[in-house]
């Protein structure tokens, strides 16, 4: 028997949290720094020690170092800069991607021939489409190039210094509660038709990708929305 999804009208609520008006903000993030986690797919994982380096060399695409920051005070981030140091033992060039909450915001290339010396680099993303984190952001540097065996590696050093720039969380947060899905909500079942959920009733059965229920909400008084929750 085919499983079907029935969406019944209920007293479900959708809560919006909004920042109004928007204010620019920034947050200084020590990254990479002591406590950052790293992964070398060939030499193992670990945590960056204070005043030290990642003990595992990295030279494989997908190797990374990352660190999470809460309490940044930023509803969204639209620019990132970072100054960081590595031990460069590369025998070939290595491309590094910079990610925020899993989204790449740019890259730079570390050239070979470091001879095992400590080197410092600065990355600037420029402006990008805002990444909404609601105050919590995970920063990562991820290798994009796999070097052959004997092609050298890099190790990350403690002492990185980054800056996140974006829209600040408001001092106060407005919340609006609405009933969703509820009577009057429109729906589409590509196999059984469209309509509106009746009072104390349900939508047509749904089992096809793209089927939906949808409801517009006006008069919320919210300039923007950066978080929602829903019970249905």
Return the CATH architecture of the largest domain. Sandwich
Spatial separation of the terminal alpha carbons: 25 Å
- DSSP summary: helix tally: 0
Poorly predicted runs are 11-15
Q: Could you tell me the radius of gyration in angstroms?
A: 24 Å
* CATH 4th-level superfamily of the largest domain: Galactose-binding domain-like
Gross morphology = elongated
Average pLDDT reading: 87
Number of strands: 18
For the record, the CATH class of the largest domain is Mainly Beta
How would you describe this protein?
- There is one protein chain.
- With 232 residues, this protein is mainly β.
- It has two domains: 13-19 and 172-231, no CATH class; 23-168, Jelly Rolls.
- Helix content is 0%, strand content 46%.
- It has no helices and 18 strands.
- The strands form four sheets. Strands 2, 6, 9, 10, 12 and 13 form a six-stranded antiparallel sheet that branches. Strands 4-3-5-11-7-8 form a six-stranded antiparallel sheet, with no helix packed on it.
- Residues 11-15 have low confidence and may be disordered.
What are the main properties of this structure?
232 residues; mainly beta; Jelly Rolls; 2 domains; six-stranded antiparallel β-sheet; 18 strands; 0% helix
Q: In summary, what is this structure?
A:
The chain is mostly beta strands. The protein has strands at 13-18, 23-29, 37-40, 44-47, 64-69, 74-88, 94-100, 103-110, 117-124, 131-132, 137-143, 154-156, 161-168, 174-179, 186-189, 193-196, 212-214, 227-231.
């Amino acid at each position: 028997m085919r499983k079907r999804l029935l969406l019944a009208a209920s007293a479900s609520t959708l809560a919006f949290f909004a920042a109004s008006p928007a204010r620019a903000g920034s947050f200084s993030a020590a990254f990479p720094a002591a406590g950052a986690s790293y992964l070398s797919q060939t030499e193992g994982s670990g945590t960056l020690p204070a005043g030290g380096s990642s003990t595992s060399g990295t030279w494989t695409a997908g190797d990374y170092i990352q660190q999470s920051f809460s309490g940044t005070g930023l509803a969204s981030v639209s620019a990132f800069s970072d100054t960081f140091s590595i031990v460069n033992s590369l025998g070939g060039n290595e491309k590094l991607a910079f990610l925020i909450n899993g989204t790449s915001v740019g890259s730079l290339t570390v050239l070979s021939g470091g001879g095992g010396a400590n080197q410092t680099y600065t990355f600037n993303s420029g402006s990008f489409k805002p990444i909404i984190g609601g105050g919590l952001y995970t920063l990562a540097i991820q290798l994009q190039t796999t070097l052959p065996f004997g092609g050298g590696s890099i190790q990350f050093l403690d002492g990185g210094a980054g800056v996140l720039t974006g829209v600040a969380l408001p001092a106060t947060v407005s919340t609006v509660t609405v009933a969703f899905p509820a009577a009057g909500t429109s729906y589409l079942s590509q196999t059984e038709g469209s309509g509106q959920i009746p009072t104390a009733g349900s939508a047509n059965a749904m089992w096809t990708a793209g089927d939906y229920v949808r409801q517009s909400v006006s008069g919320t008084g919210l300039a923007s929305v950066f978080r929602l929750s829903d019970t249905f």
